[in-house]
Amino acid sequence: MIKVGIVGGTGYTGVELLRLLSQHPEVELAAITSRKEAGMPVADMYPSLRGRVALSFCDPADAALSSCDVVFFATPHGVAMAQARELLAAGVRVIDLAADFRLKDTAEFERWYAMPHSCPDLLAEAVYGLPEVNRDAIRKARLIGLPGCYPTSVQLGLLPLLEPVAGDLIDVDTLIADCKSGVSGAGRKAEVHTLLAEASDNFKAYGVSGHRHLPEIVQGLGAIAGRPVRLAFTPHLVPMIRGIHSTLYARIRPGAGDTDFQALYERRYADEPFVDVMPAGSTPETRSVRASNMVRIAVHRPQGGDLLVILVVEDNLVKGASGQGVQVMNLMLGLPETLGLTQLPVLP
Amino acid sequence: MIKVGIVGGTGYTGVELLRLLSQHPEVELAAITSRKEAGMPVADMYPSLRGRVALSFCDPADAALSSCDVVFFATPHGVAMAQARELLAAGVRVIDLAADFRLKDTAEFERWYAMPHSCPDLLAEAVYGLPEVNRDAIRKARLIGLPGCYPTSVQLGLLPLLEPVAGDLIDVDTLIADCKSGVSGAGRKAEVHTLLAEASDNFKAYGVSGHRHLPEIVQGLGAIAGRPVRLAFTPHLVPMIRGIHSTLYARIRPGAGDTDFQALYERRYADEPFVDVMPAGSTPETRSVRASNMVRIAVHRPQGGDLLVILVVEDNLVKGASGQGVQVMNLMLGLPETLGLTQLPVLP
Amino acid sequence: MIKVGIVGGTGYTGVELLRLLSQHPEVELAAITSRKEAGMPVADMYPSLRGRVALSFCDPADAALSSCDVVFFATPHGVAMAQARELLAAGVRVIDLAADFRLKDTAEFERWYAMPHSCPDLLAEAVYGLPEVNRDAIRKARLIGLPGCYPTSVQLGLLPLLEPVAGDLIDVDTLIADCKSGVSGAGRKAEVHTLLAEASDNFKAYGVSGHRHLPEIVQGLGAIAGRPVRLAFTPHLVPMIRGIHSTLYARIRPGAGDTDFQALYERRYADEPFVDVMPAGSTPETRSVRASNMVRIAVHRPQGGDLLVILVVEDNLVKGASGQGVQVMNLMLGLPETLGLTQLPVLP
Amino acid sequence: MIKVGIVGGTGYTGVELLRLLSQHPEVELAAITSRKEAGMPVADMYPSLRGRVALSFCDPADAALSSCDVVFFATPHGVAMAQARELLAAGVRVIDLAADFRLKDTAEFERWYAMPHSCPDLLAEAVYGLPEVNRDAIRKARLIGLPGCYPTSVQLGLLPLLEPVAGDLIDVDTLIADCKSGVSGAGRKAEVHTLLAEASDNFKAYGVSGHRHLPEIVQGLGAIAGRPVRLAFTPHLVPMIRGIHSTLYARIRPGAGDTDFQALYERRYADEPFVDVMPAGSTPETRSVRASNMVRIAVHRPQGGDLLVILVVEDNLVKGASGQGVQVMNLMLGLPETLGLTQLPVLP
User: Fold this and answer.
1) What ipTM was predicted for this assembly?
2) CB-neighbour burial class of residue C133 (10 A; exposed 0-12, middle 13-18, buried 19+)
3) Residue of A nearest to B241 (CA)
4) What are B109-126's pLDDT values in tens digits?
5) Which of A49, A282, A347 sits opposite C46 (nearest CB)?
């Protein structure tokens, strides 16, 4: 059995890790930390785990994290980079669900997250944990910066269009990602704007002038394309709990009009266990992946014009966070990639 | 024009007062206070008021409240009783939407609200602002303790059964009020349990062992009945914004089985502008009173047995709080009771 | 592997059976019928099953149901009783999720369901599929009438109080079940009153004068108590997808005031795999059992009075329907009772 | 008093007309028709109108529509064009909320609505009822084709950029309208995909390959710009009742980079009573216009690049339908444009 620790388990990605890992056939949950809730049984905070998860939150100082095989950080930005070095030195693999190891450029990191980066050497070593792009590197990695929820869906949606092998298909300077997220994406923080009485029966954009996921998306797409891309990113808040729907717009380049984009996507993702390219004409629903690690994608070219409209749905807490974390863990440890991740979506 | 001040206008009952009062033909909004948001235009916090309410929040110290005709307190418990005496001395009428002037027994108040009552003499003078019960007293009052949202619906639902004039119809020792409230009833406070991601697609009871509205309901029903009553009160949280649905259970006394309860209710409320007794067999919906001051009631006697099931719907922010406040203000000032309160419910 | 057929798989209990059975380690899905959708791949209607359920709906006439080990009926009332005899004759075990085999009194059945009962002999043989009450009989049964969603929660909530072994604890003539259900309980039928624009941000009671689950509840409680009981049942519609919350009221009999009701419940359910008695003072949430077969119960005695308030939550599509069906199937086939039913609830 | 008739009043735009017109100081509701519900009091279907609207639905054949001053058609496409001629001949002004008089090109109409157009001459005469564009023509019109809900928000959002007077500011060939609508936009029809259990906690696009509002938007923008425009339109379904949020993307032309777009919008809409240009940096919420005739717009230029992102919110049933109908009626009759339309949005 693999011993797993979770640092900062009181938030939504923490409880989702608990849900997935406690049902994973090869995992033993060794410790879950919370400075604030130390001593409280996990199942007191999350009654859904009653009778199934016997752990209590423990103080980070008391957690035997260094004897774990893998430690997940489900913490605010800045925590993982303060603790990763010691764990890595003890031979522990580290997977950070926050942003500490996503942006390769420390200046970018410091600009968007308003804190200095404390370990640029580890950042250089860290692998960006998007299996559909970096599977081999993930297998060999000690330290993972797990993608953000929006970046996962946008990158998977545009990937087949941007890879050099596909040819010069689209204009990489006018990409648009109009994204919509359920409220769990904002985390389990007491804030007014995500109260049910504020956010339900309501819809709005936010972060239009600049959202932290923008540089991550641009970095990721640039790495895929092998050249710089420009993208506008508009996130919106949807009155639902889970789910991200990304509506992506890309202009077809003059010479690429004859491409069979449906076939391109189907071919690219034929062997991916968690990416489902839907039949032409489909409009995927977020609930079709609710509580599962699947991503579903549909490719549209309205009226046969020069604009592609790509629709992508994921569960922001699973493929957008904790499920992807488990997928990455499986890869790092040489386990079957889908182990513990095959539960069907919950619909309705 | 009547000059009106609002103390503590940043919460939901505050903004609802603003919505109603700014459309009231006889009211001039003179001041709205918020220590924390002093200086901020009201319409910055509530864009729904843009172009229509020009006021800014002001510091309580700077508000010319003593020159108002009426001051509403839409504040936490304990604020109104600290400021009422001075305002009353200046000839201002005071309407408290919190609990300071609801419970006549200061010991009860102190037990349920965990603070001493600072002005028992004013409490003795204060009138409980439920027009359907206390209309005449309200007309002459200087100081009003406005009923809570649950208590309004429960009292209006049981009133016709309990008034001595109706005879000895029901067992007053086994009353049950199973009540369901939208989340706005919890106020505009940053709390985890009322986040959309926690409270939507979910249902639960709370305060089962004792809720602050219980002593208020029991006091009110006892006053109506002229004798003590016993009632069990179970509040529940509904994943919706506005609305209270009270399901009330009362046992018919052996001798009262022939009563025409439908007729009793219709007769009792025939002249009430804000209470609608629906036809026999109806099941009122909360949305049928959304954003309006109406209460709708249906009277059921399943299978002709000895149990009455009374269904009551109200908008907790209107008839359950701010709308009732305006209704009471109209009465205190000799205005037509329905002035500014005739807007139709918003459906769907 | 056990061969399982589903008759009428297009509704919510049908798709929930698919979700559970396709993940059940001992089950092979052999056929799913739908006269209307014959030929359509199941995953076209329910994209959540894409890549995991390869079946298409087939015409009932073409389904090799008689070669199945078990057939579930997820059909409207009246279908199962027309087809059960032939299947039973072929040695197939039959589990009906509708009402054909619930009410033992055919006159009652005909009164509430407005159709004659076509096979009273089978009705007499049929076992009421509530494992916590009838486990041994279920093990030996060929034909199961599965409990309704409300009746499951009400019976599990009152069971420990009513069993003769517990003594004469409560007044069995004044029971009240105030129940609240998510909208999936109304099924996947195109109807105006369950549209999102009608049912969301709204709350109402329905069926107050008489709901079909009332005679089933009364029959079940009477069987448990060994004597007639009287109960008032008020169902309500909650703006959420899944979940039932039953708030149950029972009067403690004069001599029973010293009973430790918390201990009574804990003892009674100590060995039940799907019933969780929560700690004293708890208020269970429907989401704590979302998408799982668990029921959670809390026992309250407000202010130490003579009224018990029992709170019960279940997922109406799982323990209230399809999950209970799988639990019953496991029992009938001698499999471990929890097989295929151990997935954790999805929260948030 | 103005006598008003409504044809087809059982849908959401019908009941919204009733809500607005019954509170309009100059209107007398003369008749409301519904073949199917003839004889039923309007308030039986819509309890929100109890005590306030005494009308019953009447059969179209019995309605004295020709003696009305104005008749609204809140009917399916195709009804208004069959009845308009007779009403116009009787001197009645006609406002159609459906699509019969929107598309000027009958071939376009027939292609998108799959029915022949029965009165091209009236179509030629009909005025497109968007006051911010056609105010003078509306004042003189006998027959109005009222804009669709999406087209209203998209046209108001792009109008200042496209009017020739503004200069050649944006690329008119690459416009994108990514729009999100509440479910009431689908009407009060019994359909599976808009059930609460299907559409809540869910998000999806629809009509991506072609939606009926696309030709209307393109026609309207082309008329505003005085030249053809090209636009991609992606509608999405939001799990809320009311509200449309349009996120509009427009590329700034090379020579127009110095334009002060915020000032352009503020200037253009300075005198419009129902269009509110919010301060720079704002992200308007749909609830900020809930149940009101207001539109709120925010203008963004992320990172000072060459892409404008315009955010527009409206209530699809008010400014997107019935409220705009009343606004147009006021103009046609020479009444103050805002009469009966000044109610504040309902928030929360």
Assistant:
1) 0.97
2) middle
3) A197
4) 999 999 999 999 999 999
5) A347
